[in-house]
Amino acid sequence: xxxxxxxxxxxxxxxxxxxxxxxxxxxxxxxxxxxxxxxxxxxxxxxxxxxxxxxxxxxxxxxxxxxxxxxxxxxxxxxxxxxxxxxxxxxxxxxxxxxxxxxxxxxxxxxxxxxxxxxxxxxxxxxxxxxxxxxxxxxxxxxxxxxxxxxxxxxxxxxxxxxxxxxxxxxxxxxxxxxxxxxxxxxxxxxxxxxxxxxxxxxxxxxxxxxxxxxxxxxxxxxxxxxxxxxxxxxxxxxxxxxxxxxxxxx
Length: 251
Fold this sequence. Notes:
25% strand; 12-stranded mixed sheet; 12 strands; alpha/beta
């Protein structure tokens, strides 16, 4: 019998490998491809049959490309999920609603291309164990971020390629539980990070290719001496590529 220690699964829920179903293995990660005509209810038995086992593996992490929101319901086959990543180019409010039924989730990553409205974000309030949230794409706005206050244990927030403004800094600063913020390719500038510094809970702020200037960084450090700053450059060291601020806490 083949080793069945698969903990991560990628579900290619679209015809990306022709019409034949397959399960490929790479260490503890597996990838399932299937044709649009196949009913997803076969998923558990197909995985078990492909691995030569009788019981579905304890899968804790899933990356999924759904054809439609209802496909997300198939994740109920995996009762031990802790991390879910969703990609696609479509509206996803109902999908978020279905995900919110999996209240044991600790990490949720919604990749660029998904359209999520404030109503969709409100469903996240049921994810009481969620600590790590990634949001990407042009659909994420300042108003959407206000819904994050409904998530009681959110610790890490990652925003990328999101058209949020400097006002987002003030919104996020009010999230009492958040300890780490990562901003990547967002139009947030000097005023935005100044507003983030008002948070009493954030200890780490990482900025990657946003609109923060060196003048804004120096002003931030003058006004907030309890923070330390470090920067990363591109591979050749020609220009500043990322900035990280860490709050100095007394031991």
